[in-house]
Design a protein that fits this description.
The chain is globular, with a radius of gyration of 18 Å. By secondary structure, the protein is α/β, with parallel strands linked by helices. It has a six-stranded mixed β-sheet with strand order 1-2-3-5-7-10, sandwiched between helices. A four-stranded mixed β-sheet has the order 4-6-8-9. It contains nine helices and ten strands. It has one domain: 2-enoyl-CoA Hydratase, Chain A, domain 1.
């Protein structure tokens, strides 16, 4: 568990204080710009449930804050943007049969099924795996460092990426590329990510966040209402199909998957750093 973070000074043009956040650093690098940095580099910026709840509240605050126009989302360190869900915490919840806190409406990281009003730019400073990749798939624009990789390794852990990634990957990449990723759990290289249209620009680690902020400032210089309306109008074709598909996936499969022997085995093997021994499927 990350220790509480000291709140950065909030500029005078912010009307309302942002929600309490312990697992991320909040800053305002320029007028109208919000910068959110996941601050768990020692855990490859994986997110426990508490961090996702915080981010869900934060993104709602961002959408409601009048003078904020664009956000940049990144991770601390130079190894990972976000390695996804805190799998050890998830296994503990399964083992103890505790009630898991529900994710916010926006999904994992408050983003994987977020529609929202305002754009969020991802600055991917390393691996974006599992839920981290699910966040990127629903970002508006993505910049990445040369060491960035993208993966949905859930099939290697006995679970599935039901937070929005599967239908979004299908829409973005098409059937064959999507199936290649989700059925093998392999890593998508930065070169492929550019080729597939996922990453707008590859930027060195030392300049990545600055470049993403520069781009956010460009967006923020445009008419705020026009940006919001243009974004929502463009996403309408996506949201009417993807969001429903995400909800159906959760309704049909999530509970049975997490209660299966294979989920426990996959997560246990991950914690014990060994290969899993799978059981026959009874879904």
């Amino acid at each position: 568990m990350a220790s509480p973070r000291t709140r950065n000074s909030v500029p005078s043009w912010i009307e309302n204080p942002y929600p309490h956040v312990e697992h991320s650093i909040i800053s305002f690098p320029a007028k109208h710009i919000l910068l959110v940095t996941i601050n768990r580099p020692e855990f490859r910026n994986c997110l426990p449930v508490e961090a996702t709840i915080e981010l869900g509240a934060l993104w709602k605050w961002y959408d409601a804050e009048p003078e904020l126009r664009c956000a940049v989302f990144t991770g601390a360190g130079d190894k990972a943007f976000c390695a996804g869900m805190d799998l050890k915490q998830r296994l503990d919840i399964i083992d103890t049969n505790d009630v898991a806190w529900e994710y916010p409406q926006g999904g994992f990281g408050g983003m994987t099924n977020r529609t929202g009003k305002k754009p969020i730019i991802c600055a991917v400073n390393g691996h974006a795996h599992g839920g981290g990749f699910e966040i990127v798939l629903n970002a508006d624009v993505t910049f990445a460092s040369p060491n960035a990789t993208f993966a949905l390794p859930e099939v290697l852990r006995g679970v599935a990426a039901l937070a929005g990634a599967l239908p979004r990957a299908m829409h973005l990449f098409g059937n064959h590329r999507c199936m290649d990723l989700i059925l093998t759990g392999r890593r998508l290289s930065i070169e492929e990510a550019v080729q597939w249209g996922l990453v707008k620009e590859v930027v060195s680690q030392d300049k990545l966040v600055a470049r993403a902020v520069e781009y956010a400032i460009e967006i923020a210089s445009n008419a705020p209402d026009s940006v919001i309306i243009s974004r929502l109008a463009a996403r309408e074709a996506w949201e009417t199909g993807v969001s429903r598909a995400t909800m159906r996936g959760q309704e049909l499969w999530a509970e049975a998957m997490l209660k299966s022997k294979n989920a426990s085995e996959g997560l246990t093997a991950y914690r014990e750093k060994r290969d899993p021994n799978w059981f026959p499927s009874h879904l």
